[in-house]
Amino acid sequence: MTATVHDVAILSDFRYPGGTSASIAAEVRAQARAGLTTVLVHVRSPHLKRDRPFHPLITALIRDGSAYLAAEGEEVSAKLLVVRQPRIFTEDLAARPPVRAGRAVMVLNQAPGDAGDPARYYDFAAVRERVEGLFGAGIEWAPISPQVRAEVLRADPAATLTGIDWHEIIDGSEWWRERPARTGAPVVGRHGRPDPVKWPRTRQELLQAYPDSPDVRVRVLGGGELAVERLGRQPANWELLEFGTVEPVDFLHTLDFFVYFHDPDLIEAFGRTIMEAMAAGVPVIVGEHFRPIFSDAALYTTPAGVLPLVRELHANPDRYRAVSLRGREFIESRYGYPSHLARLAARGIRPDAPPPPALPAPRPAPRRGVLLVSDNGVGLGHLSRLMAIGRRLPKDTPTVVATQSHGAMVAHREGFLTEYIPSRSVLGLPRPAWTELLRSRLEHLIDLHGPSIVAVDSVPHDGIVAAARARPEITWVWVRRPMWRRDTGAEWIERRSAFQHVLEPGEFAAAADEGPTVDDRDGVFPVRPITYLDAAELVGAEEARAALDLAPGRPAALLQLGAGNINDISSPAARIARHLRGAGFQVVLAESAIACEPMPPVPGAHVVRVYPISRYLRGFDLVVSASGYNSFHELIAFGIPSVFVPNRETALDDQVSRARFAAAAGAALIVEDPDGDDLDRVLARAVRAEVRDGLRRRCAEVAPGNGAADAAAWLTALT
To answer: Where does the Glycosyl transferase family 28 C-terminal domain start and stop, copy by copy (predicted)?
Structure first.
């Protein structure tokens, strides 16, 4: 039987608790994602005296099949052998690892010593002799950074090293999260395995780097007890977490600044924790000696310069964000997974090309359909906008809706050929797996339905961007609603290059828009605000009341505060209903077609679950509504007296500014604080007939019309 030849064999001790194992795990993931096979060969390092399990990251890769663990003594064949951690070879191994490989690389991920002792950790000449005796004199010696390279050459000036460092890698998408605006004192912190040399040597420098100051908070994950021992006390503003109790990615998103200073004698091999912080979007403050690795993407100073720099940046949100994005972009471009695949390819390790087809492939039929892709597993806004466009495309245009929304059945009932893509939150997948699933699912739908246009009403998630780049022959359109919250979403704007066109649904409150789309206008095709229905499609008041089982002769109010999947709507709904019933209104509570849980009963309110509820708006004398894009523009366009209760918990949508603009324009009322007296005061005005008549007249004056048909015509011209 022919033995399996793996693409890459990695030989190391997989019990290391810190950066060595994290680095190995990153390379295995990159290889698995590219379709390359990896076998792990475990050898015990003589300096790990205490018995311990494999690092959890390594265990997870073995369990999910990303890597195969060779049994002790099992013969292994690979195209490339990668050996990590030279300290393993400070003593003779008990047995020669039975590994055969076409090429081999020894990754020097630790310097031989430090400033005080150039051979503190290993004797380079002795390690080289053992390694070459085991794996042959042709093995490559690859330092992980300029610092390690310099220290190896200090130990042996004649050493032959690779021309390019075998640097660390990281998948930035696993670490990045949108960083909301933070209030209060800036949080300075760091994480890493406990080691005395990982901290400044003197008490003065330790307190300069990690200040004992009431206007700064300090959080430490791992090793904080060593700093406390050095100080002789724990400052009141310090919070210490034990190493391994919190995932680094979660910990980093509690910090405003990552600050790392260590013993001056330590030669830090690379600084993986620094790279992780930058990938997470946390500005990094370090010593000048890290500049060869992180260039201008980090901030460089001395311990004494930390606090002034923190205060300066914390007071300047624009500069803070620029530093955050610069760091993230640098890490993705310099140390992302593609850089690892490139160095493997330089050594002949590439994914196998698919076999050529047995017969010439038939020429594809001309593409002319439209695939409408909507985001969001908790709302109907993205989906409704796309359906508004889709229902106005020419009848002979093949149109498919692909949605992550729970409302896929709504699109199906509205007559669309519908494909459901479960969202990441529904599947509970880690980000890399979700990215790959979304990309492959979109590519499959393109191959299946053959559209010429993919219109995406979503932020450009990694999977969407990857699919767009994999299918450049398709015209990709970003349907990008404006009115984003200030200081949010800039990272999505930066991904606009994945799309050939941007279609922008209009915004009645555009004059109050302070979001990032305002400054990104080149090549944007604007239309009027998009609503699912035109005014002519609404049924008359009597027909609407009969359909909703409303009593004639009494005023009626509709409450539509959202799906309930983003924020809790039950409490304000009860207060509003009670007030309106006291004013003689019959109350209808609109339950979203995609609400995850049935709404708690609201005394005296009649619950309806109808899509689109806008068809029956003329049956109501008053509507109390969240100010999401769709509901807001329907109510203004159709002249329905409205009170807006903006949802303040949305990630991007600036409902507060939208509602305030409508109130300032005299087209609606707004409840700023539904938990306070503001609600009763505003509702007391809204139930007055003359106030509602004034709102109707003002809406008729400013109604912007429906841009859905214009959007459909523009898309049609692109096919």
So the answer is: 613-682
Mean pLDDT, the chain, integer: 89
CA gap 261, 311 in Å, rounded:
18
Backbone angles phi and psi of 701, in degrees to 5: -75, -35
Give the contacts of 599 (CB within 8 A, at least 6 positions apart). Answer: 564, 569, 570, 573, 589, 591, 607
Q: What is the DSSP letter of 355?
A: P
Q: Is 502 helix (H, G, I), strand (E, B) or coil?
A: strand
pLDDT 10s digits, 570-581: 467 888 999 999
Please report where in the chains the tokens 């912190």 appear, as a residue: 189
Side by side, the strands of the sheet bearing 140-143 are 68-69, 38-42, 5-12, 76-84, 99-108, 140-143
Query: What is the Cα–Cα distance from 429 to 698, expressed in whole angstroms?
Result: 48
113: left (phi over 0), alpha (psi -120 to 50) or beta: beta
- Counted residue by residue, the chain has a size of 719
Under DSSP, the state recorded for 256 is S
Cα gap 175→158, rounded to integer Å: 40
599 or 287: whose pLDDT is higher? 287
**Cα–Cα distance for residue pair 266/186, rounded to 1 Å:** 28
| Strand ranges for 553-637 from DSSP E | 556-560, 586-590, 605-608, 622-625
3 state DSSP class of 357: coil
Three-class SS state of 327? helix
- Rounded to 10 degrees, the C-alpha dihedral 59/60/63/65 comes to -110
> What are the structural domains, with CATH classification, of the chain?
5-155 (3.40.50), 172-328 (3.40.50.2000), 369-526 (3.40.50.2000), 539-702 (3.40.50.2000)
And the tokens for 180? Answer: 């909301």
> Which residue in 302, 22, 358 sits closest to 170, CA to CA?
22
Helices (H), 452-593: 462-470, 490-493, 541-547, 570-582
Q: Between β-strands 5-12 and 38-42, what pairing exists: parallel, antiparallel or unpaired?
A: parallel
Phi/psi of residue 5, each to 5°?
A: -105, 110
**Does the CA dihedral 473-479-482-488 come out positive or negative?**
negative
Segment 281-333, tens digit of pLDDT:
999 999 998 998 898 899 999 999 999 999 999 999 989 988 998 998 888 88
Going by C-alpha positions, the residue among 249, 277, 321 that lies closest to residue 490 is 321
Report the candidate in 108, 94, 117 with the shortest Cα–Cα distance to residue 149.
Answer: 108
Q: Please, where are the H alpha helices in 366-430?
A: 381-390, 408-413, 424-427
For CA atoms 644, 647, 653, 657, give the dihedral sign.
positive
Residue 501 is which amino acid? H
Going along 391-500, which residue ranges are E strands?
Answer: 399-403, 417-420, 451-457, 475-479
- Give the model's pLDDT for residue 365: 46
Query: How far from 121 is each of 17, 124, 166, CA to CA, in Å?
Result: 17, 9, 20
Q: Read off the amino acid at residue 564.
A: G
Sheet holding 417-420, edge to edge: 417-420, 399-403, 369-374, 451-457, 475-479, 501-504, 524-526
DSSP 8-state class, residue 133: H
Is the preceding omega at residue 612 within 30 degrees of 0, hence cis? yes
**DSSP, res 3:** P
Residue 384, classified by CB atoms within 10 Å of its CB into exposed (0-12), middle (13-18) or buried (19+), is buried
- Find how far residue 278's CA is from the centre of its chain: 14
For 675: left if phi > 0, alpha if psi spans -120 to 50, otherwise beta; the answer is alpha
Distance CA 236, CA 243 (A): 20
Per-residue pLDDT band at 72 (split at 50, 70, 90)? confident
pTM, to two decimals: 0.52
Tokens 């707004």 map to which residue? 670
Q: Which of 18, 61, 21, 16 is nearest to 38 (CA)?
A: 61
Residue 437 has pLDDT above 70, yes or no: yes
